[in-house]
Design brief:
The chain is mainly alpha-helical. The protein has 20 helices and no strands. Helix 17 packs antiparallel against helix 18.
Length: 356
């Protein structure tokens, strides 16, 4: 049995022949094959056609939901949104597609495209998946400016645009209400320990996440913010109340330890490493750095020493291939005691005692 050619496979996808696509996949067709003429993957073609059945087949076979087309830099989700099929959009989002993926050429997110193509039903799906409202295009329009431009230039389909506008207003109001309801987060941001204690005693959810409003606290738990902003006693209260010390935030994929060491908060670092179940070696999604990498990167020696004594791994490498010793060499110099200690598994790293 011969392996299908790319042309044969792409033609089946373009024809919307799910049965044939399935048969070709069983014969070894590449689910991530590209159309050489347009630079679209098979998944993008099926998504743009609103062919949810074929999209499911391709995803099950391992098609890459994250890759971009070779001309405009859009993803399969962008194509599905442009095609206007809500079911296909949901399938891709359920498969992990980034709801705020940005097209390389335009800077359009899927939500911007849903507004541009006048698909209010698709807008609703994206908003339900927390699509950001405060992003901008590469040509300088904010989301609001982008939408106002569409309202001005379109002579048809304004009813659909107005329906989408109502959805955007509802989402803005919902975000504002959710932010206002986060009294515990407000107390943490203000650094008000007494208010934090009151909110916890009133039953505030200790790991409640801030809504996604394209701000600094998006998707953060109170502990993530306390560790980032240096509120040590507040962090202690949150941990005592059962806060998740391994919670990640969605922007950098960082945990509380990353937040603490990145900003040089040695006391919070010492507090966190003593919590049972803490993951000392969590690697962030943007660069693969562990907390030890981050501490060394910014030259916070005391934070780094706390992590080493606590047993942080020295062998993990970031996406740039660098180990903690490599980062220490660049940041502190090859002859620094901490660098020398990290460069060997036998030498003890000198650590200054730090009060718990």
């Amino acid at each position: 049995m011969t392996t299908p050619t790319r042309e044969e496979f792409i033609a089946a996808v373009q024809d919307g022949d799910a049965e044939r696509v399935s048969a070709l996949l069983r014969r070894g067709a590449d689910p991530s094959a590209r159309d050489t003429a347009g630079g679209l993957t098979a998944l993008m073609i099926a998504a743009g056609r609103g062919d949810a059945a074929t999209v499911r087949l391709l995803l099950a076979a391992g098609a890459d939901v994250y890759t971009a087309d070779s001309r405009g830099g859009g993803t399969a989700l962008h194509k599905a949104v442009q095609g206007g099929d809500s079911d296909t959009v949901r399938v891709l989002l359920d498969a992990g597609a980034f709801v705020d993926a940005v097209a390389a050429t335009t800077g359009h997110t899927p939500l911007m495209d849903a507004l541009w193509y006048k698909w209010p039903d698709v807008v609703a799906v994206l908003l339900d998946h927390h699509a950001g409202l405060n992003l901008s295009t590469h040509y300088g329009f904010s989301m609001r400016e982008h939408f106002e431009y569409e309202l001005n230039v379109n002579t048809r389909g304004k009813d659909k645009l107005l329906a989408a506008e109502r959805l955007l207003k509802d989402r803005n109001q919902s975000d504002a209400a959710a932010a206002e309801a986060q009294k515990l987060m407000g107390a943490v941001v203000a650094g008000d320990l007494d208010a934090v204690r009151r909110r916890l005693s009133e039953g505030a959810e200790v790991d409640a996440r801030f809504p996604v409003v394209n701000g600094f606290n998006d998707g953060h738990t109170p502990l993530l913010v306390a560790c980032r902003d240096g509120h040590e006693e507040i962090a202690r209260e949150l941990i005592a109340a059962g806060a998740d010390v391994n919670a990640t935030e969605p922007t950098f994929g960082a945990v509380p330890l990353h937040k603490a060491v990145y900003n040089g908060h040695a006391g919070i670092t010492a507090l966190l490493v003593g919590v049972p179940g803490i993951d000392l070696d969590f690697q962030g999604i943007t660069n693969g750095y562990t907390p030890l990498h981050d501490a060394l990167w910014h030259g916070y020696e005391e934070c780094a020493r706390v992590l080493v004594v606590a047993g942080a791994r020295r062998d993990l490498v970031g996406h740039d291939g660098k180990s903690p010793a490599d980062i220490a060499r660049e940041s502190l110099g090859a002859d620094h005691p901490l660098t020398r200690g990290l460069s060997t598994t036998t030498e003890t790293v000198a650590v200054a005692a730090h009060p718990a």
